[in-house]
């Protein structure tokens, strides 16, 4: 069962190793959900740095230049995300491979995103592990690295190795990591922010995908925040009994329908409090509460601060 919320922890230190030809799309789908998690949590949960083999700028496949924060040989942290993307075979020289082997001693987890799996495998860092890669390269990957158990999955988590098949899958992976490390409540907020409805994607190595009717229930909740529907009505509309919906949602999200629905409504209230000058009474109505006092009690219980205090701060 997924945990709905988790206790605060120290920021995770993440290094993103870029090579010339990296994908802007993959990079954005990796760091933007982390940035959103920090913003929504109101504190730094993730701290990332851009890393390169050398100190000069790295140029993406579309010409965007990124100035790295530090070279690979001085970097360390909780996770190193290797992101070569296009032209990855040209980066498989001794300097890259020895740098990755050395980094394995300084990072707790190594992750190959897009075609980064190829470089990790070439360095011998995926031997005996399950892994995936961009599906266009999967056949060649399987033939080239017989000691790696290759799978056609969006992402694979196997012990201290993570591999991911492409830019869209990178978003799924990061959302899963947020849910695993920070709780499903925050992952759901990040998903809402990026307007993703269906997270039921194929993957291996951890829970995180939701069933079709749970996604339909979430969509119904999102569409009826101002005038909330009874949970029994939501269950009826998705073609399940209330008990079946409750059991499945508890199993997949770590919370029942009522708790999830309340969080969605309070997320809206928090956004309106922070970003508009609507009165607390109007915010309460838009979030499905009959009066400001009811909203304030629920808001403080969920976020540890009253709406007025949040707005003042």
Superfamily at the CATH H level of the largest domain? Class I glutamine amidotransferase (GATase) domain
| Number of separate helices | 13
Query: Order of strands in the sheet with the most strands?
Result: 5-2-1-6-7-11-10
If classified by CATH, what would the architecture of the largest domain be?
A: 3-Layer(aba) Sandwich
Number of domains: 2
Backbone CA Rg: 22 Å
Shape: elongated
Text of the CATH class of the largest domain: Alpha Beta
Q: What share of the residues lie within helices? A: 40-55%
What's the total count of β strands? 11
From N to C, what is the helix and strand string?
Answer: EHEEEEEHEHEHEEEHHHHHHHHH
Describe the structure.
With 313 residues, this protein is α/β, with parallel strands linked by helices. It has two domains: 12-177, Class I glutamine amidotransferase (GATase) domain (Rossmann fold); 211-313, Arc Repressor Mutant, subunit A. Helix content is 46%, strand content 14%. The chain has 13 helices and eleven strands. The protein has helices spanning 24-41, 94-103, 116-122, 138-144, 167-182, 184-193, 212-223, 231-237, 242-253, 257-275, 280-286, 292-303, 307-312, and strands spanning 12-18, 46-52, 58-59, 65-66, 70-71, 77-83, 107-112, 130-131, 149-150, 155-158, 161-164. Helix 5 runs antiparallel to helix 6 and helix 10 crosses helix 12. Residues 197-209 have low confidence and may be disordered. InterPro entries: Class_I_gatase-like, DJ-1/PfpI, Homeodomain-like_sf, HTH_AraC, HTH_AraC-typ_CS, INH-QAR.
């Amino acid at each position: 069962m997924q945990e709905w919320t988790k206790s605060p922890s120290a920021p995770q230190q993440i290094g993103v190793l870029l090579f010339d030809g990296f994908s802007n799309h993959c990079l954005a789908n990796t760091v933007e959900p982390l940035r959103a998690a920090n913003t929504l949590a109101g504190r730094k949960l993730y701290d990332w740095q851009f890393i390169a083999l050398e100190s000069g700028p790295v140029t993406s496949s579309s010409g965007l230049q990124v100035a790295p924060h530090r070279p690979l040989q001085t970097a360390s942290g909780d996770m190193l995300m290797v992101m070569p993307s296009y032209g990855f075979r040209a980066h498989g020289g001794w300097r890259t491979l020895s740098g990755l082997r050395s980094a394995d001693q300084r990072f707790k987890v190594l992750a190959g995103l897009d075609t980064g799996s190829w470089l990790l495998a070439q360095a011998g860092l995926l031997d005996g592990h399950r892994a995936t890669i961009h599906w266009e390269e999967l056949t060649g990957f399987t033939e080239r690295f017989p000691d790696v158990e290759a799978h056609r999955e969006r992402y694979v988590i196997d012990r201290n190795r993570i591999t991911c098949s492409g830019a869209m899958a990178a978003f799924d992976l990061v959302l899963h990591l947020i849910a695993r490390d920070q709780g499903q409540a925050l992952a759901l907020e990040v998903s809402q922010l990026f307007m993703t409805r269906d997270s039921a994607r194929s993957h291996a190595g951890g829970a995180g995908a939701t069933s079709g009717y749970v996604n339909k229930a979430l969509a119904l909740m999102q569409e009826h925040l101002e005038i909330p529907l009874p949970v029994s009505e939501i269950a009826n509309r998705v073609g399940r009994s209330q008990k079946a919906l409750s059991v499945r949602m508890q199993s997949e999200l770590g919370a029942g329908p009522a708790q999830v629905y309340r969080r969605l409504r309070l997320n809206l209230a928090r956004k309106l409090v922070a970003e508009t000058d609507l009165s607390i009474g109007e915010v309460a109505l838009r979030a499905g509460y009959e009066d400001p006092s009811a909203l304030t009690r629920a808001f403080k219980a969920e976020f540890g601060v009253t709406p007025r205090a949040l707005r003042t701060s």
